[in-house]
UniProtKB/TrEMBL annotation:
NCBIfam families: PRK15086.1-2. One of its GO terms (molecular function) is ethanolamine transmembrane transporter activity. This is Ethanolamine utilization protein, EutH. The lineage of its organism: Bacteria, Bacillati, Bacillota, Bacilli, Lactobacillales. The keyword Membrane applies.
Length: 364
């Protein structure tokens, strides 16, 4: 049995325990997590289903631009999709639609798409809505340090992608490094303009996903010939999207229970590591929270010390959701990509913490 299969079985075990706990009145404290996973279906459908419906159209529009551009360095166009869009927000289906090499498509969809894309369309816009205004410069610094190590996480995670030769991996890291460097320079020179740009881009993705979902639903419910003539595959793709979303949701029903137990068990050792990095207790707890979901960490930021804020944001760029949404998403879509995804995210997150630790020594 492979490591990927072992992780799947562990999540299934927690899903079953959560289901039993719901039946006996939540005495084990896992019934809520079971429900939370199932209820995630709605949010996933809103962000993913619409993009899945229009992914072939987007791919047709983008290919004439992206293929020649990425071809200049020999990179696969699938890298473009998840450099800017999170895998579970539609980046994965778009990457797989753009992919010329299936192995690179998997790398883009599940490794890169769990680090770079989420930072741009989710982490930055969400953080801005939660953190205090005075903490925005610290957010920008944390994002900077986190972006620097994304290529390192992608490199190590890419080693474990089935069927991906090392030379091909290196070539496809080139555009990732270039985009990381450009964002780094932009955040350094014009942080407010860059952050505003990320917010606008995130909103555009939401609009596309919503319109795609509505269009597919209109086709599905009416069977209108005119609507079908515009884009024949809309209704069928929407059905497939709901199947994917449903699979991810039942996976999350187990993943969230696993996260709850892991957080309790690992809290003390991880908190000790956090303190050794020169952070207060809240900062240490933030690292643990990010493993499941970075929203909780951002809500805690106001109570962290300055160094803790920077280190937590740097860690969140790559490592957020590693045992939460991204584990559930990958397990539901492509179980053999669980190990590459987790290795990439942990390596990217840990190296970001080390970089932030050394660059904030004067602020300890």
């Amino acid at each position: 049995m492979s490591i990927n299969e072992i992780i799947i079985y562990i999540m299934v075990l927690f899903m079953l325990i959560g289901a039993v706990d719901k039946c006996i009145g939540g005495k084990l404290g896992l019934s809520e997590k079971f429900e939370e996973g199932i209820m995630a279906m709605g949010a996933l459908a809103l962000s993913m289903a619409g993009i899945m419906v229009i992914a072939p159209l987007l791919a047709d529009v983008l290919k004439p631009i992206v293929v020649p551009l990425y071809g200049l360095v020999g990179a696969d166009p699938s890298i473009f999709a998840t450099t800017f869009i999170a895998n579970d927000m539609g980046g994965a289906p778009l990457a797989l639609s753009l992919a010329q090499d299936p192995a690179v498509g998997n790398f883009a969809a599940f490794v890169l798409g769990s680090m770079m894309g989420p930072t741009i369309v989710f982490t930055i816009p969400v953080a801005l809505g939660i953190i205090e205004k005075d903490d925005r410069p610290l957010l920008a610094r944390g994002i900077l340090y986190g972006l620097v190590t994304v290529p390192i996480g992608c490199l190590l995670g890419g080693f474990f992608v089935p069927g991906l030769p090392f030379g091909t991996l290196i070539v496809n890291l080139i555009p990732i490094i270039i985009v990381s460097a450009l964002i780094f320079v932009g955040l350094l020179l014009a942080p407010n303009a860059m952050i505003k740009g990320f917010e606008v881009f995130g909103q555009i993705i939401v609009i596309l996903a919503t319109l795609g979902l509505a269009f597919g639903a209109a086709q599905l419910l009416t069977g209108n010939e005119w609507l079908i003539s515009i884009y024949p595959k809309g209704a069928e793709t929407l059905k497939e999207a709901f199947e994917v979303v449903g699979t991810i949701a039942v996976t999350l029903a187990g993943a969230f229970g696993l996260v709850a137990v892991f957080t309790k068990v690992a809290n003390k050792p991880l908190s000790a590591i956090g303190k050794s990095l020169g952070m207060n207790e809240v900062g240490a707890a933030g690292l643990v929270a990010s493993l499941a979901n970075n929203i909780a960490m951002f809500q805690m930021m106001k109570d962290m010390d300055k160094r803790g804020k920077i280190i937590n944001v740097a860690f969140a760029v790559s490592a957020s959701f590693v045992i939460g949404d991204h584990l559930g998403f990958t397990a539901g879509q492509k179980p053999e990509m669980i190990v590459p995804m987790m290795i990439g995210k942990f390596v990217g997150g840990i190296t970001a913490v080390l970089l932030a630790f050394f660059l904030t020594k004067k602020e300890a």
